[in-house]
Design goal:
Helix content: over 70%
Number of strands: 0
Radius of gyration: 43 Å
Largest sheet: none
Shape: elongated
Distance between the termini: 85 Å
Number of helices: 6
């Protein structure tokens, strides 16, 4: 115990000699620690508020999307309830016609044989002419790298 008291007194004497063993210094360090603690907690609160505002924004956007989807479904339901939709469905599904119209039923193979092939683009048919030095360079690259 004598050794510890000796070390304490020598340390205290060194601090007094350097002017660091003062109550005002300890108070200043305590106030600094409290200020740092308040600043740190404030920064954490700001970070939490930022994250929460991002979540709120994302949920609001999802809510807007869902509202638009609901409006789209309501409009579709309104269209499905119209006479125009019923008439188009009857024509397509049941082969019905309006008064004065004639319905022709064409077999599938006849309809497919009447189709013409889609013409290819002329840009695919054009041959790209490259300068001789570029052809030569590509040839050497093909030799070295085996493309």
């Amino acid at each position: 115990m004598d050794y510890l008291s000796y070390k304490y007194t020598t340390l205290r004497q060194k601090l007094i000699d350097k002017g660091l063993f003062d109550v005002r210094l300890f108070a200043l360090i305590g106030v600094g620690f409290i200020a740092l603690s308040v600043f740190w907690n404030g920064a954490k609160i700001v970070q939490q508020n930022f994250e929460l505002s991002q979540k709120v924004t994302a949920i609001e956007q999802e809510n807007q999307i869902l509202e638009l989807e609901n409006q789209n479904r309501e409009l579709r339901n309104q269209y499905l309830a119209t006479d125009e939709f019923a008439e188009l469905t009857a024509r397509r599904v049941f082969g019905k016609a309006a008064p004065g119209e004639r319905v022709y039923i064409v077999p599938k193979d006849v309809a497919l044989s009447a189709l013409t092939a889609v013409e290819t683009d002329q840009t695919d048919q054009l041959e790209v002419t490259k300068p001789q030095y570029q052809k030569n360079l590509e040839t050497w690259l093909n030799i070295y790298f085996g493309n």
